[in-house]
Amino acid sequence: MSTHFYEPKNGHGLPHDPFNAIVGPRPIGWISSLSLDGVPNLAPYSFFNAFNYVPPIVGFASIGEKDTLHNVRATGEFVWNLATRSLAEAMNLSCTAAAPEVDEFALAGLGTAPSRLVKPPRVAESPVSFECRVTQIIQLQGAGGEAVPTWLTLGEVVGVHIDEALLRDGIYDTAGAGHILRGGGPADYFSIGPEQLFRMFRPR
Predict the structure, then answer these.
(1) How far apart are CA 132 and CA 177, in angstroms?
(2) Is 173 in contact with 188 (CB distance < 8 Å)?
(3) Are 62 and 150 a contacting pair, CB within 8 Å?
(4) CA angle 35, 20, 90 (to 5 degrees)
(5) How far apart are CA 4 and CA 2, in angstroms?
(6) Is 0.90 topped by the overall pTM?
(7) Nearest to residue 179, comparing CAs of 199, 197, 158, 164?
(8) Three-class SS of residue 19?
(9) Which residues contact 27 (CB under 8 A, 6 or more apart)?
(10) Over 90: is that where the pLDDT of 99 sits?
């Protein structure tokens, strides 16, 4: 087997960086936040995941100091909203580079729904939302200890909203929810449906 080897610091030598296509597809961090002035913000983040069960902790990485990062630093709160196939175009619109005073909910034609425990609103059309309180904001470092202009925000999930239609006999129906995932490349996304589902139980 011949392999393409490269050292990232020297460039990959390909038409498009393969890193985030290989580490994928990834769940999308569709994050809503609120400025201190009360302006809603909504933005999707390509680097997002869950990191702990008890307490449940999720995190997203902001490459550069963006409005979401400024808001969560100032308020200590955010909401994660599930991006689904039916919401894909609106999610994509919400990543438009806009001034801090612009409301991306309105820009993307989305409604807001009130949260119960935090101030930022939820995406009304999203079937699942996590209300979160910030636990850590960490600036990333390279192997040599140099600071990287990327900040990882971790938040404890303090409230969960689930469309009851997605609870089948009390079990969340991932395949039926229509999750979309970021696949890397210039524009690649993936959707999840029943045809991708298989089950494999852990060894006892």
Answers:
(1) 21
(2) no
(3) yes
(4) 45
(5) 7
(6) yes
(7) 197
(8) helix
(9) 48, 49, 179, 181, 182
(10) no
